[in-house]
Design goal:
Number of domains: 2
CATH topology of the largest domain: Rossmann fold
Strand content: 15-25%
Number of helices: 16
CATH architecture of the largest domain: 3-Layer(aba) Sandwich
Structural class: alpha/beta
Helix content: 25-40%
Largest sheet: 6 strands, mixed
CATH superfamily of the largest domain: P-loop containing nucleotide triphosphate hydrolases
Strand order of the largest sheet: 6-7-8-3-9-10
Radius of gyration: 23 Å
C-alpha cells in the first residue's frame, strides 16, 4: 500500500477524534430479500477523514446512520474507541457524535445562536460557556459572530446555513463527526469553498470524520481514506485516494472513478504545499493613490483590498486604481480566491476565470495569506505527473464477512483527551 503521511498537514494539533470499528454489521429490512448492509467490518482510524462512496442505493448512508444508531443494526457490533455503542442509550450516543446533513438541517424557528447551543443546553452547560462556544465556533467556520448569531436560517445563504450546521455539530466538542452529502445542495463555487473550510477546520480540530458523498472528486479532495461500496455495502476497495487512483481494485472501481483519473491526481496536492507570494495590501475605504504608488514600487499589477479582519474584499488592477476616488468597502463575490487547503485542481479552475492569471490564497477565517500564480501551479502539476515514488503502508481494516481478506493497519497511538460530548 502507498504510505501517505496524512498527519503532516496537522501535526501541530493533537488528535481529538476516536477510532470507530464496525464488526460484521448487517441491516435487514422486513420484506427485502437481501440485506441493505451485509456483514460490514470497517475500521476508521482516529483523527482521520474517511469518505464513503458508491452508487445510489448501495448502503453507504445506512452504514453512516448505524454509527450513531439513527438506524439500528440488525446484527454486529459498533465500537467507538473501546466502547460498544450498541449497548448504550441511543439519545446519549447521539449527543456524543456530531451529525451534519444537506443544508445544515437547521431549525427554522431558532436563531443561529440557538441552533448551535442546542446540545450544550441539553448537557447543562452554563450560559457563559455556551455563549463563548457560539462565538468560537462561528469564528471557526468563517462567520462573524456579531453579524450572524442573531440571524435566522431564512436570512442565510445555503453556504452560510451549511457552515452553521457544521458549527452546531461541533458545539459540544464531539470526537466523531458524521456528514451525509453535506455539500450536495449548494452551487459548485460555494461547494469548493465549503470543502476548503472543512479541510482548514479539520487541520485544527482533528476529529474522526465519516462523510457520505456521491462525488468521487470530493472524496479524493477531502478523504484520508476512501471506501468504495457496491450494492449491499460490499466493500470493493478501502484505500488512500492516491492508491485508488493509481491502482483501482477492479473494473467496478475504474468505472466509478470515471475518466480523467490522471487529472484527478491534481486533487492530491494542496495549495499550502506550493510557494505563495506576498501581495500589496490596502485597507477598505483607503486611498487608491497610495495603493497605486506602492504597487508600482514593487512591480505588482494588482492590489488586494482587505477588511478589518484581513479578509480580501477586492483585487483591483493598477488601471482600476487610477480611476478610483476611494478603495472599495463592499466585498466583490467574483474575486478569484481559494483556501490554503484547496487542491491544485481548484486553484487552476479558479485561475482560468481570473484576468490576473493568479488567485488569492486565504487561511483560517478567510484571512489573506498571499497569491499563487499559474506558473507555480503548473510546476507542481508536472511534479505530480512525473512523480513515481511510492512508499509502502498498510490500510485500515475494511471487509465484508467471507468476501474479502482483512488488511490490518498500524493503529495510531491513543492520545489522552478531555471527555468529549456530542451534537
Amino acid at each position: 500500500m502507498t504510505d501517505i503521511d496524512h498527519s503532516s498537514s496537522s501535526a501541530d494539533h493533537a488528535i481529538s477524534g476516536r477510532s470507530i470499528r464496525l464488526d460484521n454489521v448487517t441491516k435487514r429490512y422486513p420484506g427485502q430479500e437481501h440485506p441493505a448492509v451485509d456483514g460490514v467490518t470497517l475500521e476508521i482510524p482516529e483523527g482521520q477523514v474517511v469518505m464513503l462512496v458508491g452508487p445510489s442505493g448501495c448502503g453507504k448512508t445506512t452504514t453512516l446512520k448505524m454509527i450513531n444508531r439513527l438506524i439500528e443494526p440488525s446484527e454486529g457490533r459498533i465500537m467507538l474507541g473501546d466502547e460498544d455503542v450498541t449497548a448504550i442509550d441511543g439519545d446519549e450516543l447521539r449527543r456524543r457524535i456530531g451529525y451534519v446533513i444537506q443544508a445544515g438541517g437547521l431549525f427554522p424557528h431558532m436563531s443561529v445562536a440557538q441552533n448551535i447551543a442546542l446540545v450544550p443546553k441539553m448537557l447543562k452547560w452554563d450560559k457563559a460557556r455556551i455563549d463563548a462556544r457560539i462565538d468560537e465556533l462561528l469564528d471557526l467556520v468563517g462567520l462573524d459572530p456579531e453579524v450572524y448569531k442573531e440571524r435566522y436560517p431564512k436570512e442565510l445563504s445555503g453556504g452560510q446555513q451549511q457552515r452553521v450546521g457544521v458549527a452546531r455539530a461541533l458545539a459540544a466538542d464531539p470526537p466523531v463527526l458524521l456528514m451525509d452529502e453535506p455539500f450536495g445542495a449548494v452551487d459548485p463555487i460555494t461547494r469548493h469553498r465549503l470543502q476548503d473550510e472543512l479541510i482548514s477546520i479539520q487541520h485544527e480540530v482533528r476529529k474522526t470524520m465519516v462523510i457520505v458523498t456521491h462525488d468521487f472528486d470530493e472524496a479524493v479532495k477531502l478523504g484520508d481514506w476512501i471506501v468504495v461500496f457496491r450494492e449491499g455495502a460490499q466493500i470493493v476497495q478501502y484505500d488512500t485516494p492516491e492508491r485508488i487512483l493509481a491502482e483501482p481494485a477492479d473494473e467496478f472501481v475504474e468505472n466509478f472513478i470515471g475518466s480523467g483519473a490522471a487529472l484527478k491526481q491534481l486533487a492530491l496536492r494542496r495549495v499550502r504545499e506550493v510557494e505563495v507570494t506576498d501581495a500589496v495590501v490596502a485597507g477598505a475605504g483607503g486611498d487608491p493613490a497610495d495603493a497605486l504608488r506602492r504597487a508600482k514600487e514593487v512591480g505588482h499589477d494588482h492590489v488586494v483590498v482587505t477588511d478589518s479582519r484581513g479578509r480580501p474584499i477586492a483585487w483591483p488592477s493598477r488601471r482600476a486604481l487610477s480611476r478610483m476616488q476611494q478603495l472599495p468597502t463592499e466585498a466583490d463575490p467574483s474575486i478569484p480566491m481559494v483556501g490554503s487547503g484547496a487542491t491544485l485542481n481548484d486553484a487552476l479552475d479558479t485561475m482560468l476565470v481570473s484576468s490576473a492569471g493568479a488567485t488569492l490564497v486565504t487561511g483560517r477565517g478567510g484571512v489573506l495569506e498571499g497569491v499563487v500564480d499559474v506558473e507555480t501551479v503548473m510546476d507542481a502539476i508536472r511534479a505530480v505527473r512525473d512523480s513515481a515514488a511510492e512508499r509502502s503502508s498498510d490500510a485500515p481494516v475494511g471487509t465484508n464477512t467471507g468476501t474479502f481478506d482483512t488488511v490490518q493497519a498500524d493503529a495510531p497511538a491513543d492520545d489522552d483527551a478531555e471527555t468529549l460530548s456530542d451534537v
